[in-house]
Amino acid sequence: MAEGSESSWFGRFLIWRVKYVKEKNFILVLSLLVGIVSGLAAILLKNMVHFTHVFFTERLQVVRTTFYDEVKLFGLLDRVPAEELRRYCGTDVYAVWQYDTAHHTEYLETLYCYLRQDRSVKAAAEELHLHRNTVNYRVGRLRELFRLNLEDVPATCRMLVSCEILRVLREKRQRQIPKGQCF
């Protein structure tokens, strides 16, 4: 009985449409409805992809082996209070961080990776998933904007430690933010 009532409802709709709505207007209304539904479906799909990406990159904790040699410095830096730790960061690296924050660039990440990779553009490009020319450009901009001497080994060691300090400060700040809240 339910199936028959559905077909009679649909049949009545078709008869009504033929009597009162021109085919051209019906097609316009139908295409408008299809456009709206497909737009909503696209938004839904985009948001699902975004939330899946966030879940797998930020929320999901990946277990990896950490060796003691990797965390010695971090353990020392983590014990220093944040307000005091900031004073040990080099002014040149802190200027890069401020520039990145103001201009939404990634010079600090590039500098940190470049120094960790023993100033190898090729290795830094591979780690950052960038083209070598992009890393070369960014390193050139770092030299130009901040007058960094990346050939001076003691200076690069200080810069690397300053990058580590900023990374530890960022992690300390993230630990203080309750879950579910953003900066």
What does this entry look like structurally?
- It is a single chain.
- The protein is mainly α and 183 residues long.
- It has helices at residues 2-20, 23-59, 68-79, 82-85, 91-103, 107-116, 121-128, 132-146, 153-176.
- It has nine helices and no strands.
In N-to-C order, the SSE pattern is: HHHHHHHHH
* Share of β-strand residues: under 5%
Kindly report how far apart the N and C termini lie. 59 Å
Summarize the amount of helix as a percent range. over 70%
The helix-and-strand class reads: mainly alpha
What is the β-strand count? 0
- How is the quaternary structure best described? single chain
Kindly provide the radius of gyration, computed on alpha-carbon positions and rounded to a whole number of angstroms. 29 Å
What is the averaged pLDDT score?
Answer: 85
Shape: elongated
